[in-house]
Specification:
4-stranded antiparallel sheet; 8-stranded mixed sheet; 7 helices; 12 strands; Rossmann fold; about 250 residues
C-alpha cells in the first residue's frame, strides 16, 4: 500500500498529519502529530474486527465484559474508540472530552466520526471537566496525551479522588499508559499507580499487546476500582501487577 497524505495542517494546539499507510501490517489511516514522532490514533481499513491500536481493543474487551450503560472518555484523538462504541453500543450514554477542537474536525472529516443522539462531545481540559461534574458514570476511560506524555494533572491524587467520586457503585476507571516496568520510563507508571491507590482499593496493570518487556516502553492498560471485578477475565492479557505492595516490589 502506497503511503498517501490525507491531511497535513495545524490546529489550535498542534500540527497533525493523517496518512493512509500500512501500520502494524494492516492497511490503515493513521493520525500523527508533528513530524510523525508517534501515532496518536488510527483505524484499520481492512475487514478485521479488531481495532488498530491494541489498547483500544483492550478497552473494548472491558466494555464487552462489564457492559456499562454510561461512559466518559477523556482524550478523543481521532475518535476511533467512540466510533467503535457507537457502532456496537448505540444506546450507551457516552461523553467524550477533547481539548483540541481541531481534532474533532479531523475526526469528522477523515475518520467518519458522526456521533449519535446518545454521544456528547465536550471541548476543554479533562481535569477541569471532572472537577465541575455533578453526575457519575459506570466507566471512565483516560487516554489523554501531550505528544507521548500523559499530562501532569492526570498523575495526581487529586484527579484520582475526582475519578473515584465520578464513578457509580461498581464502576471502573481504565487508563492507557505508555511506560516500561523498569528503568527511567517506569517512573510515570508508578507515579500514577501511587496516585490511584490513594482513592481505589484495587489496581491492576495489564499489557495492551501480546509482546511484553520489562525495560522497553509499551502500552499498558491500568484499571482502578473498588468492586470485586476480575479484570483478567475480560482482557486477552491479564494483569502483570496488582495492588500497591506488588507495585512497590516491581519498582525496587
Amino acid at each position: 500500500m502506497k503511503e498517501i497524505v490525507i491531511f497535513d495542517g495545524n490546529t489550535e494546539f498542534d500540527h497533525y498529519i493523517v496518512v493512509d499507510e500500512v501500520y502494524n501490517d494492516r492497511p490503515s489511516r493513521v493520525l500523527y502529530s508533528k513530524d510523525k514522532i508517534a501515532a496518536q490514533s488510527g483505524v484499520a481499513l481492512d475487514n478485521k474486527k479488531e481495532l488498530l491500536f491494541d489498547y483500544n481493543e483492550r478497552f473494548m474487551e472491558l466494555i464487552r465484559g462489564l457492559n456499562p450503560r454510561s461512559m466518559l472518555i477523556i482524550g478523543g484523538g481521532a475518535f476511533t474508540l467512540p466510533i467503535a462504541i457507537n457502532k456496537d453500543y448505540p444506546d450507551m450514554a457516552l461523553d467524550v472530552v477533547e481539548l483540541d477542537p481541531g481534532l474533532v474536525s479531523i475526526a469528522r472529516d477523515h475518520f467518519g466520526f458522526t456521533p449519535n443522539e446518545n454521544t456528547r462531545v465536550h471541548i476543554g481540559d479533562g481535569s477541569n471537566y471532572l472537577e465541575k461534574l455533578d453526575f457519575t458514570y459506570d466507566m471512565i476511560i483516560l487516554d489523554a496525551y501531550e505528544q507521548t506524555k500523559i499530562p501532569v494533572s492526570f498523575q495526581t491524587p487529586e484527579v484520582s479522588r475526582m475519578l473515584s467520586n465520578r464513578l457509580n457503585q461498581g464502576g471502573l476507571v481504565a487508563m492507557n499508559i505508555i511506560a516500561s516496568m523498569h528503568g527511567v520510563r517506569s517512573q510515570v507508571l508508578y507515579r500514577i499507580v501511587k496516585a490511584m491507590e490513594s482513592s481505589f482499593s484495587e489496581i491492576e496493570v495489564s499489557p495492551a499487546g501480546r509482546e511484553s518487556s520489562l525495560w522497553i516502553a509499551q502500552n499498558f492498560v491500568l484499571t482502578a476500582h473498588d468492586s470485586p471485578i476480575e479484570v483478567g477475565e475480560h482482557l486477552s492479557y491479564g494483569p502483570v501487577m496488582t495492588n500497591a505492595r506488588k507495585f512497590e516490589d516491581n519498582a525496587a
